[in-house]
Amino acid sequence: MPRVAVAISRVAEAISTPVILITGASSGIGAATARLFAQNGYRAVLAARRMERLQSLADEIGAAGGEAWPVAADLGKLEADTNAAAALLGQGKTDDAIAAYEAIATKAPQIPLVHYNLAGAYKKKGDAAKAEAAYRKSVELDPRFVDGYVGLATLLAEGGKREQAVETIKQGAAQNEQSGRLQYALGVLEVGAGDNRAAREAFLKAESLDPQNSETQYHLATVALNLNDRTEAIARLEKYVGAAPPDGANVAVARSLLAALQKK
To answer: Are 22 and 161 in contact (CB under 8 A)?
Structure first.
């Protein structure tokens, strides 16, 4: 797998937004619970019999910067079916998992996460065309669905379609101006394309929007090296080594680079 795609894959795997399933969400405690979880960074799948109220709540949460998807379905069964499909995929029964996810998509076609999961199954099977279609469906349903953009861009980058991957992330960033994750992914892609100044701009935005992602510091250091800014590279590497966990993806490399630069 290309190095750029590997780096974006780490974004997809490590910084995924948690999902909460809420029944009886059209009013009362259910609605209040949905608002509370959305305010704390969860995507909320809302279920109840009154679709109009669910949609109104989803619109309210979206206007406040959160994500919520209404569904008039038996949420308990939906959750059980999704868990069963994931288990099949984990067992290597890819065709069975795809069939299960397709059945879920038929019952709940309006939930972006359903299509995202289906895309992952097709990707595992090696069917890039169907995976791409499912990823695109997920962001078509919800233009604020960050996971969908990252999944699609990763797939495109792995297939050598780097320009399309960059455009996908830019489209996602335009819809999600406060997403540090998308700016980080854009920086990774721009580095792969050899545009260090564009990469630096994206990583600086990522740093501002998501200061907890220490990997941004490592990438800012490598960009600084590419731009022959030794002082900036040392400062960023020191910040990265100080903030990243000991088993961080690039800690060993960062320590080596830092030692070499400090000797000069």
So the answer is: no
**pLDDT tens readout for residues 10-64:** 444 434 567 777 777 777 888 888 888 888 878 788 877 677 788 888 888 888 8
Cβ burial, residue 259 (10 Å; 0-12/13-18/19+): exposed
Q: On the CB side of 63, how many CA atoms lie within 13 Å of its CA?
A: 6
Residue spans per domain, the chain: 1-176, 178-264
| Buried/exposed 147-164: b ≥16 CB within 10 Å, e otherwise | bbbbbbbbbbbbbebbeb
> What topology is assigned to 1-176 in CATH?
1.25.40
59-101: pLDDT as tens digits: 888 888 788 878 766 667 877 888 899 999 999 999 999 999 9
CATH of domain 178-264: 1.25.40.10
Decide whether 1-176 matches 178-264 in CATH topology. yes
